[in-house]
Amino acid sequence: MSSAIEIKKIFIQKSERVKSIHLHPTKPWVLLGLYSGNVSIWNSHSQVTEKTFETGKSPVRTAKFIAHKEWIVVGSDDGFLRVYNYNNMESVVELKAHTDFIRSVVIHPSLPYILSASDDKLIKLWDWENGWECTKTFQGHEHYVMQVAFSPRDANVFASASLDCTIKMWNLGSSSSHLSILGHSKGLNSVEFFETDEKLHFVTVSDDCTAKVWDYDTKVCIQTLEGHTNNITSILHVNLDFNLIITGSEDKTLHAWNAATYKLDQVFTSELGRVWTIGFIKDSSQIILGCDEGILVGHIIRACS
Asked: According to its UniProt record, where is this protein located (predicted)?
């Protein structure tokens, strides 16, 4: 048995362009943010769409479950954050959060906080137990902020990726970043943390068609992953039995890299156009891609040598 893996297609569902995917921690639900302005909840067990509703006329680029509150939070191109009860789809709150597109929202793992990142170059912290007040604005990026991610080692620390070509590290207590790294020759689209052998890393992907793996402690780039032929839009680390770095791109492919050796294991081509976002359904070893024309589900298996 070799260490190589394969991704085999098992399901396709055509829909509007899918810009974000988020998995519910306990239910077989996949939250899809759609460029049309709609949000859908798709059941990965029954493979049917359980709920679809319109949040507005503006594209949705990010949507997340807040499972312990039974909420979803949606960020749109009109600069609004909208929160709904996912049982009855009733509005919890609607607020004008930014003056430009909202690219990313992330939920704090333990505190009642949401971070939002926008094309207005700002990141904002929202406290839902304090009347949804914006308690901090983080400034310093010089271009669109495409994504934010909390550190698994310290939930007071988060990273941001921007089209200004930098990764910045922030602490929730300060409006200014404590570290800025010029990471790529073109804009960054995503950042994700992952741990292997008790060592923390982060990965960035860029319009320069590369992904880079960074040592969190030294902040040194330890590997550049090359092979895509267009902008890399998304990144996912799959642990468990696989230990993979998976990248999705506007070249309509998914690349699966061994996270220990950085060897390219497989190139998987999407039948539904450009790949915008990736999710992993842990209990089934299934990967779900959000593409121009819908979702594509594949099964990760080990390849025999």
From this structure: Cytoplasmic vesicle membrane
